[in-house]
């Protein structure tokens, strides 16, 4: 990573341009999930005052919302910086391609491996070697898959933030069936007019 200020125009597709130390990002992503669990647990204890404790589903949902909202803001910031010198996108497929090629390369140092669409607002992005899962291991595959799911929530937020900043209202879901792969499903919502 260079400590010098990059000279405009900022080009996310330039393979020699480095704006983020990838090891720092890896360590941040590793620590975000336990941090979100700690914050939710601390807030639940502070807010109890005689109320019943959070159930597992409520706690999981609170952690999901926290991680997704952090990712959402990161996605908005990245788009502000790296799409300002680009031409306007003509349709939602162009936005998704920008996400798969330029933004994913910027964040995870590789492009999405596969993009599928039904041309009716549903896009499936597949990353066969999702970087945050590269070093993840557990004693059993089912335990690994269960432990990996929360690490997809921050990237879901990033995708949502990128799309919202570019004018696409969408819901994003992620899953993994085998480490280190990850699949993100984007369902665009038609604009209300």
Describe what this molecule looks like in 3D.
- The structure is a single chain.
- By secondary structure, the protein is of the alpha+beta class.
- It is 47% helix and 12% strand.
- The chain contains five helices and four strands; from the N terminus they run αααββααββ.
- The protein has helices at residues 22-46, 56-82, 92-108, 141-148, 153-165; strands spanning 114-117, 122-127, 170-175, 182-188.
- The protein has a four-stranded antiparallel sheet, with helices on one face.
- A hairpin with a 6-residue loop joins β3 and β4 (182-188).
- α2 (56-82) crosses α5 (153-165).
- The longest helix is centred in the middle third of the chain and has 27 residues, at 56-82.
- It is globular and about 55 Å long.
- The protein starts with 21 loop residues before the first helix and ends in a 5-residue tail after the last strand.
- Mean pLDDT is 85; it is low at 1-5.
């Amino acid at each position: 990573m260079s400590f010098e200020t990059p000279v405009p125009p900022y080009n996310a597709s330039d393979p020699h341009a480095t704006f983020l130390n990838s090891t720092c990002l890896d360590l941040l992503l590793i620590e975000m999930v336990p941090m979100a669990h700690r914050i939710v647990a601390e807030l639940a204890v502070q807010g109890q005052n005689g109320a019943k404790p959070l159930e597992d589903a409520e706690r999981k949902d609170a952690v999901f919302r926290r991680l997704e909202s952090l990712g959402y803001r990161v996605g908005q910031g990245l788009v502000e910086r790296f799409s300002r010198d680009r031409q306007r996108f003509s349709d939602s497929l162009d936005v998704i391609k920008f996400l798969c090629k330029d933004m994913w390369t910027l964040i995870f140092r590789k492009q999405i491996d596969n993009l599928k669409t039904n041309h009716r607002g549903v896009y499936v992005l597949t990353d066969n070697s999702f970087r945050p899962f590269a070093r993840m291991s557990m004693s059993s595959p089912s335990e690994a898959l269960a432990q990996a799911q929360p690490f997809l929530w921050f990237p879901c937020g990033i995708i949502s933030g990128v799309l919202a900043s570019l004018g696409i209202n969408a819901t994003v879901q992620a899953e993994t069936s085998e480490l280190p792969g990850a699949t993100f499903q984007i369902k665009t919502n038609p604009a209300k007019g």
